[in-house]
Automatic annotation (TrEMBL):
Coiled coil: none annotated. It comes from Nonomuraea longispora. This is FAD-dependent oxidoreductase. GO terms for molecular function: oxidoreductase activity, acting on NAD(P)H. The keyword Flavoprotein applies. Its cofactor is FAD.
Length: 398
């Protein structure tokens, strides 16, 4: 009897999971279900090259490997429910699909501000459709932009809006510095200086509390005029459809070190929605919303699921990826390897100067756990050299 694997989510993680199932020797049916009416595409350029007009919308689609030519794609309808015990998922169109194995790859959605007032000017940036709408608005002459959230997406959108000629761009955030929590004070302070030098304004230590017909109202009483408000205040894992199955869904789908959820050998999670322990650092399950994790987690989860479906034991080696990401702003890049947020109490400049282009190392217990470069090609290349030091670190042992 032929086996059937359902991949819930036609994301990069979903595509890579299908490809890696084939690479792991699984030859049965694979059905990928996705809410968007298009094949998987690359999301990081949405807030950078695509929004700026340097890359076309049509260029983002991934080219699937030949090994998944027989995969069935069910697009334009979302998975809305699951009975994991019965091994059935329900779709938004009312149909049901049974499975022998289920890959959770439903990713995240933008968190929204819970503020009263007009919604017509409020935008998020997660999908191609979002990017099309936002680009049309940012290219209007004299546009005034408020970005709620000074994280990676918020700062990238602000930089792009300035480059497109927006009349005013203001970033609002409750923290005293942009990207303070993930990167620490040293890097955050230099990011602030560079963004301000390029013309981005900041309203820090406050938050958007309401919208009116002119723009936004801040917690400190100030009003900012805005034609467009971009909400970049974080993300929410898409796990609602899994409720009622006894799974730990607190901030994503909690898995073990082999990416299995709920102790079930036929249920795995990948990408932004997975909350897993990384054996490279410690045993604490965390979600990691970095581009590299989609592919790394898909490979590990596929091997785990394929072994179960073949009736063999999975590779017992715990999952220990090295996260990495890059973020482009104005004329400089932020390049990261590892987990800087775990080493914020011990940050050291490894190369360069703190008030210029630099590479910094983040340490925990004297051990290097993350490397971040800020600046031009020379320091981002230097960060890649320090990556080898991170890879040589021994795995965590309890």
């Amino acid at each position: 009897m032929s086996r059937n694997v359902i991949v819930a989510g036609a994301s990069m993680g979903g595509l890579r999971a299908a490809e890696q199932l084939r690479a792991a020797g699984y030859t049965g049916l694979i059905t990928v279900v996705g809410e968007e009416p298009r094949m998987p595409y690359n999301r990081p350029p949405l807030s950078k090259e695509v929004l700026a007009g340097r890359q076309s919308f049509d260029s983002l689609a991934f080219r699937p490997r030949a090994s998944v030519a027989d995969v069935k794609w069910v697009l334009g309808t979302a998975v809305v429910s699951a009975d994991v015990g019965r091994r059935v998922v329900g779709l938004a169109d009312g149909s049901e699909l049974t499975f022998d194995g289920l890959v959770v790859a439903t990713g995240v959605r933008p968190r929204r501000l819970r503020c009263p007032g007009l919604a017509a000017r409020r935008r998020t940036l997660r999908t191609l459709a979002d990017a099309r709408v936002l680009r049309a608005e940012l290219t209007r002459p004299g546009v005034r932009v408020v970005v709620a959230g000074a994280g990676f997406i918020g700062c990238e959108v602000a930089a792009t809006a300035v480059a497109l000629g927006a009349a005013e761009v203001t970033v609002v955030d409750p923290e005293p510095l942009p990207m303070l929590r993930p990167l620490g004070e040293l890097t955050a302070r230099e990011l602030l200086r560079r963004h301000e030098w390029h013309g981005v304004r900041f309203a820090l230590g406050t938050a958007v509390t309401a919208f009116d017909d002119r723009g936004v109202v801040l917690a400190d009483g100030r009003r900012l005029n805005a034609d467009v408000v971009v909400e970049a205040v974080g993300s929410v894992p898409n796990t609602d459809w899994l409720a009622g199955n006894g799974l730990d869904l607190d901030d994503g789908v909690r898995t073990d070190g082999l990416l299995r959820a709920g102790g079930l050998p036929y249920l795995v999670a990948v990408g932004d929605v997975a909350r897993f322990p990384n054996a490279r650092y410690d045993g604490v399950p965390r979600r990691v919303e970095h581009w590299s994790i989609a592919g790394d987690s898909a490979k590990r989860a596929a091997r785990t699921l394929a072994a179960h479906l073949a009736g063999t034991e999975p590779d017992p080696e715990p999952f220990a990826p090295l996260p990495s990401f890059w973020s482009d702003h104005h004329d400089f890049r932020l390049q990261c390897f590892g987990a800087p947020a775990l080493g914020l109490d011990d940050v050291r400049v490894l190369e360069g100067e703190a008030a210029g282009d630099f590479v910094v190392g983040y340490h925990r217990g004297g051990r290097l756990v993350g490397v971040v470069a800020l600046g031009g090609p020379a320091v981002t290349a230097a960060a890649a050299r320090h990556r080898s030091a991170l890879l040589k670190q021994p795995a965590f042992t309890a």
